[in-house]
Amino acid sequence: MKPSFPRMQLISTTRHAVRAVTCAACARVSSPPLSWPVASPTLNARRSFSALERPPPNYPGHVPLTRTERVGLAVGSAVMSLIDPYRHDLIAALGEATATPYFIYRLRDAMLADPTGRRILRIRPRITSKTLSLTALRALPENTVGRAYVGWLDREGVSPDTRSAVRYIDDEECAYVMQRYRECHDFYHAITGLPIVREGEVALKAFEFANTLIPMTGLSMAAVTTLKAQERQRFWSIYLPWALRNGARSREIINVFWEEQLERDVEDLRKELGIERPPDLRDIRTREREERRRHREEQKQAP
């Protein structure tokens, strides 16, 4: 009769192997895979900071905000900018407070998905009176993008240096995306021809919302309630349909390298972007004023 020790040893070895496999399987189920995100103490500390103990800024001028502060900034700036739509600092604060965490990343990803957008992110150009020669732009032919831009600046009495610096967006690259959008705003005015009167700003914000999905641009449309009855009717019937149609179908305007388009025919650029120019709002308002003046004079002359 053969000794049973080798058989017993085989059974014991098998049991140990099965137990080891089972434990390994349990370990795989109970432990997260390496690809899962693991929260770091640094990130948790940054999320739970207080107003009295803020983390260091991520870029010059950056102000880290708690969630409560961000909500307060969004609500306060929304209410005050509705009261006074010409407070660009409040509108800028509203844009930054509501753009995170999703919308500004979506806009950044749209730039990363486009060759021109990636180049803009790499070079990070700025639009100011120092980077653009307004005198040279005034010497360009009438039908060029640069001439349309500087002509709009002169007509509206504004400057490219009036845009506030981004402060409340934590990610440094996304902060530049918001700064770029902000500094290109006057080009959007120029290529659409919409003036900076309240009615024109609301129409342009509707266009920007359809194109960029930045919440501030959609919230700013609430200013339509402050318009006169005739202006509201014109917005709902003419400019809102135009804004939604053109904003949704046109290319992402954040990916336009405006500095390289200055000598180009403005009509060609509109066609390439898929933007049709809306009815001239200044002409409409001028005709309405003349009509009201003529009507008053006729009433005075009537017996």
Automatic annotation (TrEMBL):
Species for this entry: Hirsutella minnesotensis 3608
Family: Belongs to the COQ4 family.
Oligomeric form and interacting partners: Component of a multi-subunit COQ enzyme complex, composed of at least COQ3, COQ4, COQ5, COQ6, COQ7 and COQ9.
Coiled-coil ranges from the UniProt annotation: none
GO MF annotation, one: zinc ion binding
Superkingdom, taxonomy of origin: Eukaryota
Keyword Signal: no
Cofactors that this protein relies on: Zn(2+)
Name this polypeptide is given: 4-hydroxy-3-methoxy-5-polyprenylbenzoate decarboxylase
